[in-house]
Amino acid sequence: MQSSLEVSRDKCRRRNSALHGYGLAFTLATILTLSLAGCQDKTVRLEGAGASFPAPIYARWKALYHRLNPHVRIDYRAIGSGGGIRAITARSVDFGASDALLRPIEAEALPASLLAIPTIIGAVVLTYNLPGLSDTELVLSGDVIADIYLGRIRLWDDERIAALNPDVALPTLPIRVAHRSDSSGTTYIFTDYLSEVSATWREQVGRGKTVKWPTPDNWAGKGNDGVAHRILLEAGGIGYVELKYARNAGLAYATLINRDGRAVRPSPETVQAAERMTAAAPNNWIKPSIVNAPGETSYPIAAFTYLLVYEDLSHLGPHKAHALFDFLTWILTDGQPEAQKLHYAPLPEEVRKAALVRIKAMRLPELPKSYHASDKPEWEKVVDRMVEFWDLK
User: Fold this and answer.
1) What span, in angstroms and rounded, lies between the C-alpha atoms of 9 and 16?
2) What is the DSSP letter of 94?
C-alpha cells in the first residue's frame, strides 16, 4: 500500500509527464510552473540531533531523500548521543539519535513512549598519528588498549606494543590519548568494550557516555571529527573514532586482536560477523551490545546506532508526522544499500523487518482531507484533462 507521500509523488509525475508530452511550449511552461507549485505544497522541515557516529550516513540519506521529496527538508546536528537524548526528551527536535540505548533514569524522564529504531551497524577504530608509520597497520589488543587509556602504557615502543608488532620500528614517543569532550555514544561503545576486556577498567572507570578519564595527559575533542582533529595536531596521538572519520582524516587505524585471538581489520563484513556471533538478549529483538564478540572474523568494537522517535507523533502535526514516518520507512528499505558505500553495515534482515513493524505501529494524526474536484483552480482542471488525454492516470 502506498503512503500519502508516495501517492502525491505519483500524481505529480503523471501531471509533469503529460505537460512535457503536450508540446505547447509557452502555454505549458506557465502551466508547468503552476503545476509544480501545486505538487510541492508547503515545505515540511524535520529537525534531528544526536550522535556523530552515524552522521556521514545520515547526511547521505537526507540528501537522497530530499532529491526524491523536494518538499521535505531534513536538518541534522551531530551534537553527541547525550545531546540527542536530551533534545528528544525536551521535544526540541522531531527525532533524536544515539549509539547507546537510554538508561532507566533517562527513560523515566521521557514525556511519552519512545522508540529506539536501529539504522546501521558501524565500527569504532583506534586511530593514531605516528610519523613514518602512516601506512603501517599496527596491531593492538584489548588489554593493551585498556592500559594505554589507564595511563599504564605511556610510550609507543613499550614492550607490550612491540610484542604485538615485531616487524615495526616503533618510536620512543609519548602516547597522547584523545577522547570525547561531549556526552558521546561512541564513548559508550568504546568504554563498553574496555569494560569487557579489562577488569581494572570495569572496576575503576566503567562504561558510559561520559566517564572520568584516568590518564593525566590527554586531549578532548567534540564529536568524532573533533577527536580525529586532535590526533592530527601532534605526533604520538591515539584516539577512538568511527571508521569513516578515520578514513576521511587520512589517519591510520589499528588491527585489533579479537576474543578468539585473531587479528581483524574493521569493515562492514567484520562488524556483521560480530553481530551474527553475539547471542540475542532474552525477550529483546535488539542486541544492546555486540562488543568483544566471539568468532574468528568478528571485529571487537562494533555497535548498532539508533534513531529516537516517539511512538505517538501527534504532537508534530499531520504533515511532519507523515513525512517522518515516510523517511524512517525509506531508511529501512531503499536507504539500507547506501550504508556499505560509507563503510557501515546495513541491518540484518530480521532486525530490519522488526524495526519496520514497530514503525508501522506508530500513531499518526490524520492528514487533512483532499479538497473536492469542483474546488480545483482552472489551471489544475486543465492539467487533469491533459492527464486523461495522455492516458497517464
Assistant:
1) 11
2) S
User: Over the Cα atoms of the chain, what is R_g?
Assistant: 25
What DSSP state is assigned to residue 251?
-
Per DSSP, the chain holds a count of helices (H) and strands (E) of 15, 12
Find how far residue 150's CA is from the centre of its chain: 29
Closest by CA position to 127, among listed 215, 248, 295, 261: 248
The candidate with the shortest Cα–Cα distance to 195, out of 146, 147, 159, is 146
Contact yes or no for 215/150 (Cβ under 8 A) = yes
Q: Is the pTM of this model over 0.85?
A: no
> In sequence order, what are the beta bridge partners of 180?
221
CA atoms of 108 and 114, how far apart (whole Å): 11
Question: What pLDDT, on a 0 to 100 scale, did the predictor assign at position 38?
Answer: 43
CA dist., res. 97 & res. 50, Å (int): 4
Which among 82, 156, 84 is positioned nearest to 126, based on CA atoms?
A: 156
Give the three cell numbers for residue 126: 583506534
Query: What are 32-85's pLDDT values in tens digits?
Result: 333 434 444 579 999 999 999 999 999 999 999 999 999 999 999 999 999 999
In the DSSP assignment, the letter for residue 194 is: H
Report residue 377 as a C-alpha cell.
483552480
